[in-house]
């Protein structure tokens, strides 16, 4: 049921109507589980169409059970990138160590999934497309919680009332801004900025990551397949976020070029490619930490509520688990009790995973010469084989069964 354009002022008595803002990992997984629990779901997404490709993301631990219960494990296994190694290079390009990626990510080889973000989103989209009203190329302009429903005005001009609105619109969530206040109230800056972009894979790399480090600056190349584009990441430490650069792509490029001036290895070529890249993505490395994930009839999920940052590698997994827990908590309950249950059941898991920053993730980007030396010594001493257990935080939540009563959306 992929429709475009909202209907003016309609309201169906058949079940609770939920608007989800954002068709990313969290929004699509939430839409799926809400439908399973009997809700009528509309998803509004600012992009004009589903997004393909993208950088690789991980699905691990508890989140694997979420995708298994959704029935999308087979296509995701087929899309799995079997990353073979992670090679660390010194400032002069010399090799420091080459290790199995799971040694640092705490993942479990043979179980965890690593897939392109677009492949994950496509699998989730295929699971909901027939049952959910998708509204691409639009976004929430304003919303008003009347106590009995949420009156939404869309940028495209439509107006409609929903029983609930869920913000799944990412780290810089507009829903959060509208309902909970400015991002800086919840933004926890982790001391780094990064530029991500793709360039032709002229490096002969395949299913591997190469990471070049100097104190406070790092360049990574992530190759899925030979012949495919390679994902480049230029990451650098900075005490304060460079707010002035955010709205101006040229200022972002200048900032990154200035920070990496004089660097060796392939960095000059990467800077040249960044200048030409049409998919440059510049941001701070940050988390979102909120005291509450809901207010009235509006709640948040995924990066909008609890972005853990890519240093944890847990963003997609938290989005999947959060979506499952939120939808299940709503089944058969009024929204106040449901949102409280969602937080009570999910917050500890989220916090454990957000706290993984520093346990491997930040070790990828040491900011001082001393930290870099320690990191390199640690790499040389790593055991030969990864543990088969994975990090306890990844599996710290045992997923409850919420049942799939199709009538649940009518209750309360
Ligand atoms: C460079 C990079 C590397 C990463 N690497 C990893 C990794 O290795 N492993 C991992 O697990 N995670 C990784 N992540 C994080 C991961 O992508 C996110 O944590 C995860 O996708 C969270 O999903 P989400 O659905 O909450 O948010 P998002 O994926 O950000 O999706 C939000 C959606 O909302 C839409 N949207 C935004 N604003 C609006 C609006 N106003 N109205 C309507 N729609 C809107 C967006 O277009 C998007 O479709 C990485 C992130 C980045 C940036």
TrEMBL record:
Kindly provide the name given to this protein in its UniProt entry. Answer: Oxidoreductase
In terms of domain of life, where is this protein from?
Bacteria
- The regions listed as transmembrane in this protein's record are none
Question: A Pfam family name for this chain?
Answer: FAD_binding_3
* InterPro entries, A to Z: FAD-bd, FAD/NAD-bd_sf, FAD_aromatic-hydroxylase
Where is the organism placed in the taxonomic lineage, from the top?
Bacteria, Bacillati, Actinomycetota, Actinomycetes, Kitasatosporales
Q: Where is the FAD-binding domain?
A: 17-179
The coiled-coil regions, if any, are none
